[in-house]
Each structure stands twice: as structure tokens, then as C-alpha cells.
Amino acid sequence: MSIDASLWPYLLVILAGFLPTEVWRSLAVVFARRLDEDSEALILVRAIATALLAAVVARLVLLPPGELIGIPLSIRIGAVVGGLAVYYLARRSVFFGILFGELVIIAAAWYLG
Amino acid sequence: MSDSAAPPPLLKEEPPGGTGRWFARGCYAAVTSVQGLVLFASMIGFGGLCRDIGFPVGAAVLSSLLIWALPAQVLVVGGYAAGNAAPVIALAVALSSVRLFPMTAALMPYLRGPKIGIGKQLIAAHFIAVTAWIEGMRRLPGIPAEWRLPFFLGLGTTFVLGAALMTFIGFLLAGTLPRSLAIGLLFLTPISFLIQLTHNARDLVDRLALGFGLIVAPFMAEVGGRLDLLWTGLIGGFAAWGVHRFLKARNTHVD
Predict the structure, then answer these.
(1) Of A4, B71, B100, B174, which residue is the least packed, with the fewest Cβ within 10 Å?
(2) Model confidence pLDDT, tens digit, residues B204-234
């Protein structure tokens, strides 16, 4: 039982990373063969996917990774709300919305750092 | 009555290089999309994270190519750093990647066709992660059905190869970025997901799902345990769909 230690990260990527993600994609391909492009079931599946991604966003803002947690929660939420506001004010510009949210966080990190 | 000089019917002949041209259009769409820009910047941050943790650069790049889902990649690298056992990491990755199931199921109907076998569908499905899903859901419905697959493969290949390259560059750059900028890269994922999802949510059911998801998520984080994301998706998704069904039924009654 001697796997070269330098190979371990590569095996980890394949066994603990690649396989458990790809299995969901593959199962979904089989499942989706029963769905029509305009069916009600597809609308439901899309709504579930959208709500799941919203949950990912909420978690990354509330419990952020790495040093982002050093930015106060109120500023993180403010950057999200401000980014959305700028997105609408700039006539639905994705670019300016993201840019504004980023600027708030970077400015806060610079000021607090 | 046959005229030998008549040109062959246009419908029967595919435009020369049609597949290649739509593949190239997919590649072009990838490098010019805001989502691509965000992805590449996020991968620079991920590369830096790998170097900080002591994860080898080759395995970091391999994770971008094979796992191709940033939250799962962070779990693998984080688990490695914490010295967790492989099955524990695999379980965490599997739970965090459940979202790929409804995402893939929602996108695949656009990519199906009589000539597209399951093998090609499985290859196309590998490219599904938030970036390609958002871009695909936005653009595929407007593309002629027969060219959707080459377009999506071009889009996905460019995203994945670009992400792998940026992981490598991020690894090399680690430690040279100002701290405030590195923190900004970490914020890129949530802010861009949210604004792109808002941008894509044209129908009421999508906007409701987004709103319900954001509202339900903090509660589920408290009580949902390790499956909190899945619960939020199911509750938010079914609630949005329920409202959609209710309004549709009421409208048909009035008419």
C-alpha cells in the first residue's frame, strides 16, 4: 500500500473530485431524455436549479471562503444590493453591476486592511 | 422536365464547414462573454489558493479540466490541506455537486437531436457548470437546433481550456497580487452568479425561484444540515413552480 505521495493529489482530484461531480451530470443526461423542451416538468427542473444556485450565492455571501470573511457582513450584503441596483440603473448591464459590487469589496478590503 | 443545369436544392446541402463555423462561434462567444471574464478571473484566484495551500500545480490544472466546478475544486483542495480522508472529501463533493443534476437536466433538451447519440450528450454534459449553463441557457434557444451542439461544445471547450490556463497563471502569480485584489477575486463568484441569474430570469417563475432561493437559503443553512443547498433548491423551486401553475390555471379560467 505505497502510493507515491506526489501522486496523491492527482488521485484525489480524480477519485474524490471528478467522479462525484460527473456522476450527477451523467445521471441527468439519462433522466433528461424524458423531458421535452417546453414541458412543465422542465420549467420545474429549471426553477429548482435556479433556487439551488441562489442558495450557493447566499452561502458564499453569508459564510465566505478565505479572507473574504474579514469583510463585515453588512458590507458584503451592501456590495450585493449595490451591484444589483447598478445593474438595473445601467439598463441591465451585467458588467457594471459586477464591477460596482467588486469595487465596494476591494475598497473595503483596502480601507480595513 | 428535369433541368440538368438547376442548382442542387439548398436544403439538402449543409453549408460548408457549418459544424466548424458554429464551433468557432461558440469559442468566440466564450471569450467575449462577461461570464467568461468572471470565470477566468476566478480561476486566477483558485490557482493562488492552491499555491498557498501547497497543492501541486499539475493537480490544480487537472481539477479545472476534470472537475470543472469551482466549489467542488475548493472542497478537494481544502480537504487535502486539512488532511481529510478521500471518502470524506468525495462525499462533500457529491453533496455540493447535486445542483449539476437539475442544471444538466434543464439544459440537455436543447442539445438533443435525432443524430446526437448518448455519447455526445455525455461529453456535452461535462461542460455544464455555472458558467456554461448560464451562457447556454441564454443563447441556445435562439440557435437553430442542428447547430446547438457544436456551438455549445465550442463554448464549453474554450471555457474549460481558458480556466485551466488561468489556474496555471494564478498559481504563478500567487502572492504578487495586492491583498485587497485577492479578496475581490473571492467575491467574484457570488456577485457574478447573482447578477447573471437575475439577467437570465426573464419569466416570472425564474425570478420567483431566484427570490425564494435567496430568502430560504439562510434558514436552511441553520436547520438543513449538509443537504441545506438541496433543500433550498427543492423548496424554492417547487414554490416558484406552484405559483406559476396557480397563475396559469387562473388565467385559463378567466379566458
Answers:
(1) A4
(2) 999 999 999 999 999 988 887 777 888 899 9
Residue among B73, B98, B214 minimizing CB distance to A54: B214
ipTM for the complex shown: 0.88
Angle subtended at Cα A109 by Cα B131 and Cα B61, rounded to the nearest 5 degrees: 35
State how far the Cα of B181 lies from the Cα of A74, in Å rounded to an integer.
Answer: 19
Q: Is B221 close to A63, i.e. CB distance below 8 A?
A: yes
- Alpha-carbon distance of B51 to B247, in angstroms, equals 52
CB A87 within 8 A of CB A97: yes
Nearest-angstrom CA–CA distance, B16 and B19: 8
Closest CA in chain B for residue A110: B180
Q: For residues B5 and B166, what is the distance between their CA atoms, to the nearest angstrom? A: 55
Low-confidence ranges of chain B (pLDDT < 50): 1-16
Backbone angles phi, psi at B245, to 5 degrees: -65, -40
Position of cell 439544459?
A: B107
Q: Which amino acid is at A95?
A: F
pTM of the model: 0.83
Residue B220 is placed in which grid cell? 436552511
Query: Quick check: A66 and B49 CB within 8 A?
Result: yes
